[in-house]
Amino acid sequence: MLNSFVIHPHTGPAPGIMVWGGIGYHSRTPLERIAGTLNSQRYISEVLDPVALPYLQGLTTAIFQQDNVRPHATRIVQRFMVNQ
């Protein structure tokens, strides 16, 4: 437990940016910078509709995966995905 090897956790706000990107076996989307707080409507209008759907349509076989972060799991996003 030498002090030089101990990393103390940072507990305050940290500067950073949020980005979204899609990856496949042989391709990827551009990284999309998400300014501010992402909500479900912005997720649809800034990520899914303009970036994710065109990318997925260009793949012959694809499985779209996402985590259960609140903007991904709302009814409006689920409805959008079913309709598309």
Classify the beta-strand content into a percent band.
5-15%
The stretches of 5 or more residues where confidence is low (pLDDT under 50) are none
**Please, how many helices?**
3
Overall mean pLDDT stands at 89
Side by side, the strands of the main sheet go: 1-2
Secondary structure: number of strands: 2
Radius of gyration: 17 Å
N→C terminal distance: 55 Å
Order of helices and strands: EEHHH
Largest sheet, in brief, is: 2 strands, antiparallel
Secondary structure: helix percent:
25-40%
Structure classification: mainly alpha
Give the overall silhouette: elongated
Task: Give the gist of this structure.
Helix content is 37%, strand content 7%. The radius of gyration is 17 Å and the shape is elongated.
Can you describe this structure?
The protein is mainly alpha-helical and 84 residues long. The protein contains three helices and two strands; from the N terminus they run E-E-H-H-H. The termini are far apart. GO terms for molecular function: nucleic acid binding.
